[in-house]
Design goal:
The complex is a heterotrimer of chains A (284), B (321) and C (234). With 284 residues, chain A is mainly α. Chain A has one domain (2-216). Chain A is built from eleven helices and four strands. Chain B has 321 residues and is mainly alpha-helical. Chain B has a domain at 31-239. Chain B has 15 helices and two strands. Chain B has helices at 9-26, 30-53, 64-80, 85-110, 115-135, 137-140, 152-155, 157-180, 182-192, 194-199, 204-230, 240-253, 259-278, 288-302, 306-320; strands spanning 146-147, 232-233. In chain B, strands 1-2 form a two-stranded antiparallel sheet. Chain B is globular, with a radius of gyration of 20 Å. By secondary structure, chain C is of the alpha/beta class. Chain C has a single domain (2-231), classed as P-loop containing nucleotide triphosphate hydrolases (Rossmann fold, 3-Layer(aba) Sandwich). Helix content of chain C is 38%, strand content 27%. Chain C is built from ten helices and ten strands. Chain C has helices at residues 42-49, 72-77, 95-102, 108-120, 122-126, 137-149, 167-180, 193-199, 217-222, 224-231, and strands spanning 2-13, 16-27, 31-35, 57-62, 65-66, 80-83, 155-159, 185-189, 202-207, 210-216. In chain C, α7 links the parallel β7 and β8. Chain C is globular. The chains are: A mainly alpha (284), B mainly alpha (321), C alpha/beta (234). Chains in contact: A-B, A-C. The A-C interface holds A 162, 165-166, 168-169, 172-173, 175-184 and C 50, 52, 71-74, 76-77, 82, 84, 88, 90-93, 97, 100-102, 104, 147, 151. Chain C: Residues 4-233 form the ABC transporter domain. Chain C: This is ABC transporter ATP-binding protein.
């Protein structure tokens, strides 16, 4: 019983991390119809640069802020110089973003060396409580809390701000948004920056969660985030949040009980969804 | 129409072929021979990718799975059964059956999807094969891989060179024939305008599956040959990089030309060899993927017609002048 | 005074040469009707004016300023409202959100215009907080017109407002357009000849991507041969 509870909490924490990555992916796809294969690379960059800043300044919080800023900056550069020229050409878009994933991963190896980097938590987050047989690890709760905060923040943005209104309208009909006098390209840029910083934040939080980071995490978690986005329905934040929890918890249980098929289960789930419910499990 | 020997591509191809046939007799550079052998084999893999990308307009990020299936099947046959020509030929047959089945199944299940999803799904499926190769240790010895003996006939580097060369030539003409066939024409129509082709009464999915199977078969064969040249196999053959190499070669050489894949393969592998040499001078050249990746992005964005496409454009201009 | 001048514009969509020379002028305060058969290029003309299908040659001058090189959103901000054929309402947004999205400013003048237009369309107020996807075809049309009027637009481009509407709704939409006439200039694409002839001042006939005929609506009403030739109205 306690094992199950622990696994669930573990899974929710992993789900929160995947959500941070999937949220940007789904928003960007929903609004711009760009499936950004390089999204996972932003996760990895967030992890590496966040950790680097963390070790330089000796402050975990500064590291987190640094990761967010770097993610946003990268998002701005990528959108402006790489994504924008290929908006209307799906084939080029897929190829260019994939190439980008590769280049960005290689860059990490150049900057930080090809070997994996180990990361330690700051003492104040490195605690756990024993609560009637259930181990509550502080950092996991911290990750879950940030996941919830970001979820609420994105929801607030979508439902209560003008930017969110434009995003929701743009998902339905981009031409009409522009015919109403709104510069949707600017909104694309904002959304891309937002998505990129969330991905980088996810990577930074992941680093001490797993203890080690390597350049391959971009690809690994990118695929997980994609699975989540498909299951949750492209463009749906709520769907992505639920799917991230599902994939996270399912993953935690699978890794514990039948580790060899953990990834396969998620893949099959995605396959099934794409075959039979292409709008996603939680879509309409 | 003015005929000009300078722009006759057949003539150039013929001359290149003669040079390549003569090469082993004038050069005794072992490394050059091995490099050329690799170029031939990668050219077949890139051509198989061109069937998808250039002729049908499909982007797969999992094409390495067929390459890997080919490499592992041949390696396992030679290692477990016998290192004879018979074992090798049987393994080729098995490769054709396996890649045929896998490409057909994957095609049926995923080619209905939009290009984004297809690309992502193939990436993920290839990832599964990689995991499978790592976990099925009894058969694959995990990620370390294993070495094996190859048939004595092929042990001689020159023989292998010619075998690979003719392998490439044969595959080129077979695939050329395929793309010139009525089926190939339909595929190109799909690439140009999927909706219109569908409204003409063609079953898009059916034709895309054919393309996927043909590409899968050719890729599988190139994987077999690749394993033979290395006499070693490990999980790297399933890596995404392998697929991206093919993508890069096809793009740089020129999509939808087949011949461009050969040019692309030569260019990329020659540059790769050059960069590897430079790595002795500066470590940054060890990370040659950065250069290729950047080259690839630039090629897609600014140079979509590739080398052969560009030469053809020049040729057209020359003819008109 | 000429508000909009369209001079020999040509537009390609993909490889198709849709507009092959469309020219017309719109006088301030008038309703100019574009007539023509299905597929003649009327919708594409409006889309080209909005920059949604950019023109390849020719020029579009609005208030003496050439606008055809501008992106869609800047054209809209020059003071042109657009009501597309499918109304372009955002079904998941409420009516209030649809209107709020359209409001480029929230100053008193804009709010005043909003209240004025909502008084013309009381239905919209009734369903104010409901998703606009639930509205009927006629109500969606009203929402789309309201959205185009809420900014200080001098020109409205309206694509077939009567399409798919019951006769009583057509009447309603017509009345509203009549009422707006002293506020805005309108370019109207309309197949419903009754509506076109009732509210239109000048007309242009587009055929095979070209303007082939023009004049005053009053003359067209009695010119049976012209109506038959280009509009298929006996």
């Amino acid at each position: 019983m306690d094992v199950l509870l622990n696994l669930t909490i573990n899974g929710i924490a992993t789900g929160s991390l995947i959500f941070l990555l999937a949220a940007g992916l789904t928003l960007i796809f929903g609004l711009m119809h760009v499936l950004n294969f390089a999204h996972g690379a932003l996760f990895a960059w967030g992890a590496y640069f966040g950790v680097w800043i963390y070790t330089q300044t000796d402050s975990f919080l500064v590291g987190i802020l640094g990761a967010i800023v770097i993610g946003g900056l990268l998002g701005w550069l990528l959108e402006r110089w790489i994504i924008q020229p290929v908006y209307t050409n799906t084939m080029s878009q897929i190829q260019v973003t994939m190439g980008l994933l590769l280049v960005m991963n290689e860059c990490l190896k150049v900057f930080f060396g090809p070997n994996q980097v180990s990361v330690r938590l700051p003492d104040y987050l490195d605690q756990s409580w024993l609560l009637g047989g259930v181990i509550l690890i502080k950092y996991r709760l911290f990750v879950i809390a940030i996941g919830i905060l970001v979820f609420l923040g994105v929801q607030y943005m979508l439902k209560r701000t003008r930017l969110g209104l434009i995003v929701r309208a743009g998902v339905m009909n981009k031409e009409m948004v522009q015919a109403l006098g709104i510069n949707i390209k600017k909104v694309f840029l904002y959304v891309f920056i937002l998505g990129s910083s969330m991905a980088a934040l996810g990577g930074m939080l992941f680093a001490p969660y797993s203890g080690v980071i390597h350049a391959g995490i971009g690809m690994d978690y990118g695929i997980l985030a994609f699975i989540v986005v498909v299951i949750g329905g492209m463009g749906s934040i709520v769907g992505s949040a639920m799917a991230a929890l599902l994939v996270g918890v399912l993953g935690a249980f699978m890794t514990y009980f039948v580790p060899s098929v953990a990834l396969a289960v998620n893949m099959l789930l995605m396959f099934g969804v794409l075959m039979f419910r292409p709008a996603g499990l939680f879509g309409r | 129409m003015k005929t000009n020997w300078l722009v006759s591509s057949r003539l150039w191809m013929g001359m290149a072929a003669i040079l390549l046939i003569g090469f082993p007799f004038v050069s005794d550079s072992r490394s050059a021979l091995i490099l050329l052998t690799q170029i031939f084999i990668y050219a077949v893999f890139a051509m198989s990718y061109d069937i998808l990308l250039g002729y049908t307009g499909i982007i797969s990020f999992g094409h390495a799975m067929f390459f890997g299936i080919g490499a592992y099947t041949t390696a396992i046959f030679l290692h477990r059964w016998d290192h004879t020509m018979l074992a090798f030929l049987v393994s080729l047959l098995v490769v054709l059956v396996l890649t045929g089945i896998v490409s057909y199944l994957i095609g049926v299940m995923t080619l209905r999807l939009k290009s984004h999803f297809y690309a992502m799904l193939t990436l993920a499926v290839a990832g599964l094969f990689l995991v499978l190769a790592e976990k099925w240790r009894d058969l694959t010895k995990g990620s370390d891989g294993f070495t094996f003996y190859i048939p004595d006939v092929l042990k001689d580097r020159t023989t292998l060179y010619f075998a690979s060369f003719f392998f490439m030539i044969i595959m080129f003409f077979l695939l050329k024939r395929f793309t010139d066939s009525p089926t190939g024409k339909v595929l190109q129509a799909i690439r140009e305008n999927e909706q219109r082709t569908e409204s003409l009464g063609y079953q898009i999915l059916h034709y895309k599956i054919i393309a996927s199977v043909v590409a899968g078969l050719a890729a599988g064969m190139s994987g077999s040959m690749y394993a033979i040249t290395l006499r070693f196999v490990n999980t790297a053959v399933f890596g995404t990089n392998v697929t991206l190499d093919a993508l890069l070669m096809t793009i740089v050489g020129g999509v939808g030309t087949l011949f461009g894949s050969i040019v692309g393969s030569a260019l990329i592998l020659l540059v790769h060899a050059g960069l590897t040499d430079l790595a002795k001078i500066h470590w940054i050249f060890e990370r040659w993927m950065i250069f290729f990746g950047a080259l690839y992005i630039l090629a897609v964005m600014f140079f979509p017609q590739g080398v052969v496409g560009m030469l053809r454009q020049w040729k057209e201009k020359w003819k008109r002048a | 005074m000429t508000l909009l001048k369209v001079d020999r514009i040509e537009t390609y969509i993909g490889q198709y040469h849709i507009l092959q020379g469309v020219s017309f002028e719109v006088k301030q305060g008038e309703v100019t009707v574009l007539l023509g058969r299905n597929g003649a290029g009327k919708t594409t003309t409006l889309r080209s004016l909005m920059g949604l299908n950019p023109i390849s040659t020719g020029s579009i001058t609005f208030k003496g300023e050439s606008i055809h090189h501008l992106p869609t959103y800047e054209i809209a901000r020059k003071g042109i409202g657009y009501v597309p054929e499918d109304q372009g309402v955002f079904p998941d947004l409420t009516i209030e959100e649809n209107i709020r999205l359209a409001m480029q400013k929230s100053d008193d003048a804009t709010l005043e215009r909003r209240d004025w237009i909502l008084n013309l369309f009381p239905d919209l107020k009734t369903f104010w907080k409901k998703p606009s996807g639930l509205l009927s075809g006629g109500q969606k049309q009203m929402l789309a017109i309201a959205r185009a009027c809420v900014n200080d637009n001098e020109l409205l481009l309206i694509d077939e407002p009567s399409k798919g509407l019951a006769p009583i709704m057509v009447e309603k939409v017509m009345n509203v357009l009549q009422e707006m006439k002293d506020r805005v200039t309108v370019v109207l694409v309309e197949q419903n000849f009754y509506m076109a002839s009732t509210i239109g001042d000048g007309y242009y006939i587009i055929d095979d991507g070209r303007t082939v005929h023009s004049g005053q609506m009053a003359e067209l009403k009695v010119n049976e041969s012209l109506k038959k030739e280009y509009l298929g109205i006996a």
